[in-house]
Amino acid sequence: MKRRLLVSLVPVALLASCGDKAEDEAAGDAMDPASEQALNGELATDPDLAGSNEANAALSGTGNAAIPDIDKSPRAVEAARSRAAELVGGRSELVSPPSALSLGADGQPSAAMVAAARAAVSPGGENCGDKVEYTSSWAAKLPTAFPVYPRGNTQEAAGTDEGDCALRVVSFLTPVALEEVLAFYYTRARAAGYSAEHTKSAGDNILSGTKGKAAYVVYGSSTVLVLATKNNVLGFTLDTESGAYALTHPEIKIPETCLYYSTNEGNNKVLDEPTQKAIALLRDKYSQRYVGSLVADFHRNLLKGGIFAYPADQSRKDGRLRLMYEANPLGFVAEQAGGAASTGYERIMDIVPQQLHQRTPLILGNKHVVEETVAVIKAG
User: Fold this and answer.
1) Backbone φ and ψ of 309, nearest 5°
2) Contact, 168 vs 141, CB < 8 A?
3) pTM value?
4) What span, in angstroms and rounded, lies between the C-alpha atoms of 1 and 27?
5) Sign of CA dihedral 251, 254, 257, 259
6) Cα(193)–Cα(27) distance, integer angstroms
7) Distance between CA atoms of 365 and 370, rounded to whole angstroms?
8) Could you give the CA distance from residue 177 to residue 77 in angstroms, rounded to a whole number?
């Protein structure tokens, strides 16, 4: 059976794995007009292509877009709520999830989280994440039980059915309160026969469950702006009611104790031997937490202590991440927060850029762990 992974981001991210293909395709019939509008063309995320892609402008809410910026008016919010109520059989049928249990620093992921993470790697060991194509048509292939929230503004869509892979990624925004969105997915999940567990980790609400070999995970996240100046890193959280950012994380420093390592284990077989050895040492010492999003993984490690590694591999000797607008900004943040950032052989901030979209390997996080990892790679 193919594994399926579905990701939707609002302030909400929805993941589902191992679904029925016919059921997934049927989900298009239940999608709201805002999501259907997204199905107009290819969505480019490569910076080299993004400028020439009008569909991308539509989905991102920038430029002369077919999909306007999300409507936050009371009328629009009420319309979304009404449609959500219809999809669960009426407002009286909406059930809020139980109070969240805190996972804590050493909390173990639920069975649903594990199943969803495994969906990124096919049964044959393929790295499905490397096979995804970015086209908005994937927004119409979500499981019936977990459609984009009514009137949600779809931002990005990707997926693959290549080989044994079956991966879905759909990002969307909604102005409806997080509690109501979680209630919608909780109700839909229970009605479809899934279990439901409500937890909280690093400020994010997580709703997850399973049904046989199928699994889903809903993330309800907050919007955080991190500002780094010399020797000082500040975190500001968006207040959705006022639209203003409040200082919530003054003087951020990466904890001295490293808890997590974040890397794509599916790439391990294409790494050189020294890098495989370095990753193996991380695996032996720390718990893995890997979302597959550089910013999300780094932000967790910034607050809790950890190391992110996307080293060079045999097919990409120069790495996969952009130096100018991925590695450099986060490398600066890491250093000002007491951490370190390296390619595996040299300090990120010492590299003199040769071109705008130049790529690089990236290892960043706890300073002493980055230094130990780099030492293993250099030793050969």
Assistant:
1) -135, 120
2) yes
3) 0.56
4) 20
5) positive
6) 17
7) 6
8) 9
Q: Do residues 173 and 247 share a domain?
A: no
Q: Which helix (H) or strand (E) holds 293?
A: none
Q: What is the distance in angstroms between the CA of the first residue and the CA of the last residue of the chain? A: 40
Q: What does each C-alpha distance from 110 to 31, 107, 199, 278 come to in angstroms?
A: 28, 9, 9, 27
CB count in 10 Å sphere of residue 362: 27
Report the candidate in 72, 11, 7, 366 with the shortest Cα–Cα distance to residue 203. 11
The answer to whether the beta carbons of residues 78 and 72 sit under 8 Å apart is: no
In contact, 362 and 340? CB cutoff 8 Å: no
Q: Is the sign of the CA dihedral 53, 153, 71, 29 positive or negative?
A: positive
Task: Dump pLDDT digits (tens) for 102-130.
Answer: 775 555 666 666 665 555 555 555 667 67
Alpha-carbon Rg of the chain, whole angstroms? 21
> For residue 373, what are the domain limits?
260-379
User: Are 210 and 329 found together in one domain?
Assistant: no
Q: Which residues contact 24 (CB under 8 A, 6 or more apart)?
A: 4, 141, 142, 143, 144, 168
108 in the same domain as 86: yes
Judgement on whether residues 12 and 126 belong to the same structural domain of the protein: yes
Structure token digits, residue 380: 């050969």
Q: In sequence order, which residues have a C-beta less than 8 Å from that of residue 143 and are 6 or more positions away?
A: 4, 6, 16, 19, 23, 24, 27, 216
Nearest CA to 322 among 43, 46, 132, 53? 46
The answer to whether residues 41 and 157 belong to one domain is yes
pLDDT over 70 percentage in the chain? 73
Q: How far apart are CA 67 and CA 106, in angstroms?
A: 42
- Cβ count near 285 (within 10 Å): 12
* Tokens read off for 15: 């993941």
- Residues of the chain with pLDDT > 90, as a percent, come to 41
Q: What's the total number of domains in the chain?
A: 3
Are 28 and 89 found together in one domain?
A: yes
Name, of 58-72, 203-217, 294-308, 354-368, the range with top average pLDDT.
Answer: 354-368
Q: How far apart are CA 104 and CA 203, in angstroms?
A: 10
* Same-domain check for residues 335 and 190: no
Confidence of residue 194 (pLDDT cuts 50, 70, 90): very high
Residues 134 and 73 in one domain: yes
